[in-house]
Amino acid sequence: MTLVQIPTPPPLPVRDKTAGRALSPMLTRLAEERATGILVREHGTLYLAEGRVVHAESPFAPGLDVLLTAHGTLASAAWQRAAARASGPLRAAELLLDEGLLPAGALELCHLDAVYDAGYFTLAPSSTPGRFRYDNTPRVGPLPSVPVVALERETLRRRLLLHRLWPDPAADGAPLIRTDPARAAPVTPRQRAVLDRVDGVRTAVGIARNLGRQAFHTLVDVRRLAAAGHVTPLAPHPPEPRVTAPSPLPPPPVTDPDIALLKRLRDALEAL
Amino acid sequence: MANTETALKEALTSVEGATGVALVDYTSGMALGTLGGSKSFDMNVAAAGNTDVIRAKMRTMEMLGLKGEIEDVLITLSDQYHLIRLLKSRGGNGLFLYLVLDSSRANLAMARHQLKKIEQELEI
Fold first, then answer.
1. A103 touches chain B (CB under 8 A)
2. Does any CB of chain B come closer than 8 Å to the CB of residue A116?
3. What is the pLDDT of residues A70-86, one digit of tens each?
4. For the whole model, what pTM was predicted?
5. Which residues in chain B (26-65) have CB-CB distances under 8 A to chain A?
6. Which residues contact A132 (CB under 8 A, 6 or more apart)?
7. How many Å lie between the alpha carbon of A103 and the closest alpha carbon of chain B?
8. Is B30 helix (H, G, I), strand (E, B) or coil?
9. A71 touches chain B (CB under 8 A)
């Protein structure tokens, strides 16, 4: 009888779970190869220099110009003059720094705020693949740059934070309307400013731009307000009333204030 | 006006007994800059956690209808002091400085005074 040696079978291919959790595998790869260029995704653009994020832009997040000029850190005329001479917002900011019109600390903080804010929206789940263009224009300048892993970690943390506050993301993109909560929870001054701008037309992003605040911070306020029952998103498509269908009897008028609370509870449970 | 790194460095070197410092955005809980700390004391985690402290205090003040603003918050542990100072700014930037002190070496009044000075230099 001969002993047959059965070779151990090759290991089955297993999907790498850690790779699947990256926000953008392409971005991770670009960071590893220390690429320089521009990554365009569905909801925003990241500027990479030697694998680090030097600048980020998103149509959802107010830019550096808005953050700098909204609260009097910088006169808007000074910004416009610099922007006319520079090729982009980052160059304009560096120009202002060189001329001494802008304190270094204020610029640094606004820049970091803008990068993390735009980065959050840029790394949001997208329906189309991102494109990367190798380009030598982005470079590590005097302003702080952010490692890709730090931006990804922060984006994930922000997503979790929003989810913890109020799990329904509907309030993020839709126009907002005010509701009267049965028992009004106290509103902080920051939230009050947001609440004052809820008019049935503006979205959270529009309110952020109007206030000159970061968009993510406004989302935090909006989700808190939604959780407290102060605001609710306007339904995107109100159903067209059909003339032919026999109209059902209108529900009896309800005055019980607990209905609002129950509705919010139902929404929250559904969103879980 | 100092930049973030200079301000943090100054806090860590000039304040007696300082072992870690962070500049934190309390809306998102993100540390915009950290310095010091150790393997067992992650400044980023401390920054995010203390955000909840500030928020809770603000909410309580709101409920009580207090009009004053928080200048600083002091937490004393058996071997450490944690000093939190809110940055005053025109635009409601929502930032605070977070300083960790070794209680055996620190002078609390002096640390508070110095942190106030650093905050003024960093004012936006």
1. yes
2. yes
3. 877 788 888 988 888 88
4. 0.78
5. 27-30, 32, 48, 58-59, 62-63
6. A26, A30, A35, A37, A38, A39, A40
7. 6
8. strand
9. yes
- H or E stretch including A48? strand A44-49
Mean pLDDT score, A142-149 = 88
DSSP-derived letter for residue A207 is H
Q: Is A131 on the interface with B (CB under 8 A)?
A: no
Test A190 with B94 for CB contact under 8 angstroms: yes
Helix (H/G/I), strand (E/B), else coil: A165 = helix
A207-255 pLDDT, tens digit per residue, is 999 998 899 999 999 999 998 889 998 876 555 544 444 555 555 555 5
Looking at residue A18, what is its pLDDT?
Answer: 47
Contacts of A161 in chain B (CB under 8 A): 28-29
Q: Which CATH number fits domain B4-121: 3.30.450.40, 3.30.450.30, 3.40.50.360, 3.40.190.10?
A: 3.30.450.30
Tokens describing residue A236: 């995107």
**Shortest distance, CA A75 to any CA of chain B (angstroms):** 14
pLDDT computed for residue A20 by the predictor: 46
pLDDT exceeds cutoff 60 at B44: yes
Q: A134 by DSSP, 3-state: which?
A: strand
CA–CA distances in Å: residue A186 to residues A229, A233, B46, B62 = 11, 20, 27, 6
Q: Are strands A231-233 and A131-134 parallel, antiparallel or unpaired?
A: unpaired
- Quote the ipTM score: 0.77
Tell me what percent of the residues of chain B surpass a pLDDT of 90.
41
Is the CB of A106 less than 8 angstroms away from the CB of B124? yes
- CB atoms under 10 Å from CB of B121, counted, come to 13
Q: Are B87 and B97 in contact (CB under 8 A)?
A: yes
Please give the pLDDT value at position B89.
Answer: 66
Per domain, the residue ranges of chain B are 4-121
Among B30, B45, B88, B97, most A C-beta atoms within 10 A, so best to mutate, is B30
Q: Got the DSSP string for B81-115?
A: EEEEEEPP-TT---EEEEEEEETTT--HHHHHHHH
Which residues of chain B make contact with A190, given a CB cutoff of 8 A? Answer: 27, 92, 94
Within 8 A of A220 by CB-CB distance, chain B residues are 27-28
